[in-house]
Specification:
The chain is built from 2 helices and 10 strands; from the N terminus they run ββαββββββββα. Strands 1, 2, 3, 4, 5, 6, 7, 8, 9 and 10 form a 10-stranded mixed beta sheet that branches. It is about 10% helix and about 35% strand. The termini are far apart. The protein is globular. By secondary structure, the protein is mainly beta. Strand 1 (about 10-30) and strand 2 form a beta hairpin.
Length: about 210
């Protein structure tokens, strides 16, 4: 009997997060534009290969993926392929290689290494003090900020084959430029004081 695979917990520090969906689970969209599969929480971590600590973490991620695949199938020569001879689908890679997978190089992905996280279970979200946060709280992770995160990798083999990463936990580290707007902004940045009562000035929806 094959011994059960026990994944290593991978701790990733100081990564920028993109496509953050840690508050509400959503199903992925199929080629027909309809929801497909179970709703999941998800996010993508961006690591800088030129950063020594991130480069070491990238190596750790690749080694853990290989360990999981070897446990499931044997050495690399025995790893399966997908339909049409397509290679295993991996939850990580270089942002610059996304066009080879039929995707564009998203904002912030150029020259970065990405790791896509997803999970049916709600991830644990924390602030800098290690306290649990929810949507709307200060220091709650958002797309564009920098975070620490923990994940485990696993092999899947159903209609397709590959390696995925669980969305286990994520801790806010510092603000960053928000992807696609949103994120941490102050009232001073967004508003200006208005004079007069609440009926002062011209209605901005009036059309001359």
């Amino acid at each position: 009997m094959t011994e059960k695979f026990v994944p290593n917990v991978i701790s990733i520090e100081g990564a920028r997060v993109a496509f953050f969906r840690g508050h509400k689970a959503a199903a992925r969209t199929g080629k027909d534009g309809k929801p497909k599969g179970d709703p999941k929480y998800s996010a993508t971590l961006l690591l800088d290969p030129s950063n020594v600590a991130h480069a070491a973490k990238i190596t750790e991620i690749k080694q853990e993926a290989a360990r999981a695949l070897n446990h499931r199938y044997g050495d690399k020569s025995k790893w399966p392929v997908n339909a049409g001879g397509a290679p295993l689908f991996l939850c990580f890679g270089l942002g610059n290689d996304l066009p080879k997978l039929g995707a564009k190089i998203y904002d912030g992905f150029a020259d970065m290494f990405y790791v896509k996280l997803s999970d049916k279970n709600r991830p644990l979200l924390g602030n800098r003090s290690g306290k649990v946060v929810v949507e709307g709280d200060p220091q709650c992770p958002y797309s564009g900020c920098y975070v620490n995160a923990k994940t485990t990798l696993y092999v899947y083999d159903n209609e397709s084959k590959g390696v995925n990463a669980n969305f286990r936990s994520m801790q806010f580290v510092k603000d960053g430029p928000a992807f696609g707007g949103g994120g941490a902004r102050s009232a001073d940045e967004e508003f200006e004081a208005l004079e007069g009562g609440n009926d002062a000035g011209k209605d901005p929806f009036d059309v001359e």
